[in-house]
Queue: 2 jobs
Job 1
Amino acid sequence: MSDVQLRDVSVAYDDVVAVREVNLIVPAGQVAAVLGPSGCGKSSLLRAVAGIEPTTSGQILINGEDQARVPTHRRSVGLMFQDHALFPHLSVGENVAFGLRMAGQSDEQIAQRTRQLLELVGLADRTDARPHELSGGQAQRVALARTLAPSPRVICLDEPMGSLDRVLRRDLIELLQAAFATEHSTVLYVSHDRDEAFALAHTVSVMRDGRIVQTGTGDELMNHPVDEWVSDFLS
Ligand code: ADP
Ligand code: MG
C-alpha cells in the first residue's frame, strides 16, 4: 500500500490556472474524494497525479518519493475516466488482461488475476464477450477491473459513474466499496456528486476555483462547513 501527498501543487494551461497550490494527503489504503463543481480543476489535479499533465509548481509524492521526474508508465497509478473506452477489438477478458501483459506477467498469472477481477465485478461469465455486447453498467465494471488488475499503487477515478442511471450508480458504488476493501487500494476519487463522494471516501476535499477550500469527513463538512459557499454547494 502506498500513500500520496500533494504539496502546493498547481497546474496551468497557458494563462488559465486550473489548480492552485493544492495540499492533500491520501493515507495508504484510504479513499480520498475531491468534490467540486464542473470546471473547478478536479480532472487537472488527477491528471497531474497520474503524470499526464505537468505541474507548474509544487510536489507530488507517492510513498514519500517525488514523482517530478517519474514518467506516467513508471508511476504505477491506475486512471479510470468517465468514458471508459474499452478496447473494442479485444474481449472482456483481454481488456482486463491488457495491463498485465504490458507488465510481462506469465500466462498463468494473467489468467488467474483476470478471473479474480472479473469475479470481483460480477462478470466472470462474460469473459469472451466483446465490449459492444455489454450494457453501459457492465462496460464500466470491466473498465474498473482493467484499472485494478495490475494492482497500481494509487488508483485515480475521474467521475467513473459517467452517465449511469440512479440504480446502476448505487450498484457501482457498492461494487467500488467492496473492490477497494478487497484490494486495499489507495484511491483518489473525483466527483461532483456529494452522495457518491460521501459514500465512498474516508475524507472529502471540497474544491472551488482550483483550490481545496475544506477537507473533512462527510459529517464534519455537513455540520461545520467553512463558509456559505461550501454550505450551499453541499445542500
Ligand atoms: P473539472 O474536472 O473540475 O471539471 P478541469 O480540470 O477539467 O475541471 O478544468 C479546470 C479548468 O481548466 C477549466 O477552466 C477548464 O476550462 C480548463 N482546462 C481544462 N483542460 C484544459 C486544456 N486541456 N486546455 C486549456 N484549458 C483547460
Ligand atoms: Mg473533470
Job 2
Amino acid sequence: MSEKIIMKNPVVEIDGDEMTRILWAEIKKELLSPYVTLLTDYYDLGLPHRDETDDKVTADAGAAIKKHRVGVKCATITPNEQRVEDYHLKQMWKSPNATIRAILDGTVFREPILVNCVRPAVRNWERPITIARHAYGDVYKAAEYRVPGAGRAELVFTDAGGTETWRETVCDFEGPGVLQGMHNKDDSIKSFAHACFRFALDKKQDLWFSTKDTISKQYDQTFKNLFQVIYETEYKSAFEQAGITYFYTLIDDAVARVIRSEGGFVWACKNYDGDVMSDMVSTAFGSLAMMTSVLVSPDGCFEYEAAHGTVTRHYYRHLKGEETSTNPIATIFAWSGALRKRGELDGDEALTRFADRLEAASLQTIESGLMTRDLAGLCEGLTPTILNTADFLRAIRARLDTQNS
Ligand code: NAP
Ligand code: MG
C-alpha cells in the first residue's frame, strides 16, 4: 500500500447528529484515516454542544470556512418543539445550515450521484441534473402575519434619509387573511449569478435559469435581467469557447423541458423553487441518500455535505442495538468533494487523486451488487446483496485496497 497522504492545509470539519454522526466516525476510521493523515479544524455541531455554546460554535464554524476556504459538514438536527423538549434546549436554535449560509452568502449546488444499476424514474435522464439554489431571501426571510380583519395593507418604502418614496396598496381586506412581504438584494442575486456561471464553466455544462418574470414584473424580472447582463458582459465568450450555452425560460416551461431532457446541465433556481425542485430531482434520480450538496460563496469558499438529514429513524433503531443499513454514499462524497477541492487549491495531486479513487471505489462497490437497503429496492439488472452500514464501508475499503496495491 502506498504511503499515507499528508495534507498541506486543513479542511473545516463540522460534526453533526444522530445516525449521520455515527456514519461520520465510521467513514473517517475505515475510509479516510488509513490513507490520509487528516488535518482538520474541528467543530462539534452536535445539538448538545450547540446548546452548551449558545450556538456560538455554528458561527465559529462558518468563520472557519471563510478562513480555510474548504469545509465538510455532517447533517445536523434543526430543532423543532419536540427536539427542544427531548434535548432540554435553552431555546429553539436556528438551522445551522441557514446560519452558515448567511455567513458565506453562498449558492447551494445539489448533484445526484449516479450508478448504472439504478435507473432514474424519468427514463430519458441519462446524465445528472445539478440544481443551483439561491440561498438568500424571498420567502425564507419574509415578514408575514395573519391579518385580523378588514383594513388596508400597503407596501411602503422610506429611503435612508427618512423620506417616504413609495406606497402601494397590496390589498383592501374585507375580512381576515394573510400578508407577506419578501425581499431580495441586487448584490445577492448578482453573486448567485456569478456562482452559477462559474460553476457551469467549471463543469462544462449548460446553465438553465428560470423565474416567473411574466407575472412578477419587478421582482422576478430583476433576477432575469441581472443574469442576462452579467452573462453578456462577463461570461458569454467563455461559454462560447467552452461550447456551452446559457438558457433562460419561464419556470413552468423549464419544468416541462427538464422532464423531457437527457439531463447533463445545471438548473439555477430561485430559493423556493430550488428547495422544492431539488427534492423532486433527487427522488426521481433514485434516492436522497445519493445526493451531494455544495455551498459555494462568491469569494470562493466551499462547504460540502450530504443533501439528506440525520436519518432519525435509523438512529433510534441503532440505539436499540438493531443493525441498520444506512447509506453512507452522500456523506463519503461530501468528504471526497472537500478533499478534492483542498487538493486543487493546494496543488496537491495526491489528495485529488485519492478523492477520485474513493468515489470510484464507492460506486464500483454498488455496481458489483453490494449495497445498502435503500438502493437494493431500486436496483435493476443484478441481484443485490444488502449489507449493513459497517460491512458496506468495509467492502468499499477492500476495493480501495485493491486499487492501491
Ligand atoms: P432524513 O434524515 O433525510 O431522512 C428521511 C428518510 O429518508 C429516512 O427516514 C430514510 O428513510 C431516508 N434516508 C435519508 N437518508 C438516508 C440514508 N443515508 N440512508 C438510507 N435512508 C436514508 O430527513 P428527516 O427525517 O426529515 O430529518 C431528520 C433530521 O435531519 C431532522 O432533525 C432535520 O432537522 C434534519 N435535517 C438536516 C439536514 C442537514 O443538516 N443538511 C437536512 C435535512 C434534515 P427510511 O426511514 O424509510 O429508511
Ligand atoms: Mg427541502
